[in-house]
Records
---
Amino acid sequence: MALDTIYPTPRVGAQIKLGREELLSGRHAGEIRDILEYRGVVYIRGADFSDEDLHTLAGTLGEIRLDGKDGVKKESLMKVTFDKKHSHLTEYFLGTFTWHFDGFWEERPPRASVLAPRVLAPTGGETEFINTYAAYDDLPADRKQFFDGLMTAHTMERTHGRVYKEPTEEQLRDWRGYGVKIHPLIWQHQSGRKSIALSSSSHYIVDMDRAESDDLLAWIADWCEQPKFVYSHDWQMGDVLIWDNTGTMHRAAPYDMESGRRLHRVTLVGEEPLSPVGQMASL
Ligand SMILES: [Fe+2]
């Protein structure tokens, strides 16, 4: 039987109605993965999942990955917050206010993440998503043809440069440690479908005049940010949300960083390369 599904917008996001046991059993994992690919985001209201439940759900959908800064024990649960009591990664989270996909520096960016709120800000703090498959599908034919051969250089400096206007030497060293990664502008997925691989890390188009490249990246960002491709998730305690990191961009809407807002996240290992296998270039 098809899942009981509600679409909050025509092109992106899907609410599914499933009880706790059904969700955790993995019986619907294949259907959920299919909906994820087409809608980018799947969420369940009133699930009230513990951290253990988040791991169980994530484990039905793929392989759980370990995250964390080098030199610190890597963990499967990431606490997304500016509250230093709960995370040593807070300085990285400023980047969450800009549109991005996770893991541009990896050959296989994470497949998906599962997210649940633990503390919410009194106002703001929605998590927003762009369906980059839909954004590609709607491109005019001549743009599709032009974009297909283009390569984009991604840097951590570009991501953080959007929010840190006066970085320290230490920050610059840290960001530059990620290198410059060259990826196709258009992600050719193993399914045959294509999405726009744009992110806050998209620094310049390779072999293009820099001013022209800046204009083009700005045009693509404007294209992707059209309201018809965006779903803004207004969090309620008890929600569980899953997003497909390979066919979306995401960001947090502004909120009071002193509010203690905290989301718990479990992430799935990447399954397919963004660049053709073995061809991801690093400068
Ligand atoms: Fe992210």
---
Amino acid sequence: MQPVSILLKPFAKRFIGGETLEEALQTLHQLHHRGFLTTLDFLGESNQNRAEAEKAAEEYIANLKTLKKEGLDRNISIKLTQIGLEMDENFAKENFTKIAAAAKATNGFVRVDMEGSPYTEQTLKLTAEVHKNYPHVGVVLQSMLRRTPEDALCMLKEGIRVRLVKGAYKEPPSIAYPDKKETDRQYVMVMKRLLISGIYHAIATHDEKIIKEAIEFVKKEGIAKDSFEFQMLLGIRNKFAKKLLQEGYRLRIYVPYGKSWLPYMTRRLRERKENIWFVIKNIFRG
Ligand SMILES: Cc1cc2nc3c(=O)[nH]c(=O)nc-3n(C[C@H](O)[C@H](O)[C@H](O)COP(=O)(O)OP(=O)(O)OC[C@H]3O[C@@H](n4cnc5c(N)ncnc54)[C@H](O)[C@@H]3O)c2cc1C
């Protein structure tokens, strides 16, 4: 294990469901018991080896069967660079299609996470192509990107379910809002478009102000509580998530697992300076 991974491991425990599937299944069962919906992510990205990419796709297919057997949500989140997008688009599409077919066979759902902007176009294109034969696949849009309102319209036209997030990758100002307020403003604008579309979408944020605005909007528009869902990441705003659940909203928790947690954890650290302090305090505590 690299020194940086050793330092981050105590911090990672809060945010990942475990390093093995067995550990993640325990986390999923606990969440289900408390009334949450879940989506399972097998950690990994930027695969440069075809055999490894195929192995990742096989792990997802096996996971769908295990989730069914365990009576858990057959809902998974995948990354296209994990299954070969950086190497060969057709190869990634083949792997993606196999996963989508397995999800169909288990009556499940595949969400394609959105990665950095070099992959936005290909991710939307491949999702739309696979969606034509497998309607139970959806995508993620990032409100920090200037292009997102147009992408949302395209996805709505295709009837594709969207998870709306702010965006976790560092992007240049030419294509993304450098100002967080603009990202939030665009989030609310796109969120309202999604909520009134009649398609089941996911509002994925821990931002209390935005969630309150979503709730006011759905009440005003008479949108049913079961016609959309909120989503949060494991280990973030737990009490608030519980409160939403008690108010009768659907809440899905994103549960990542696996040994390749460093890039995921680095994004969680960057999002919030208190997390960096937590790591530093642990280092000095020894
Ligand atoms: C279910 C789900 C799936 C996601 N999938 C993707 C994806 O596919 N692609 C992508 O680019 N991004 C994804 N993200 C991450 C997203 O883009 C944001 O980076 C992340 O959600 C933080 O933004 P926020 O909306 O919570 O708002 P923020 O304004 O950043 O945060 C609002 C509040 O949430 C809490 N919070 C936020 N982040 C943290 C943290 N790391 N640690 C502790 N508290 C925190 C704090 O209380 C903060 O004040 C996903 C997020 C969720 C919830």
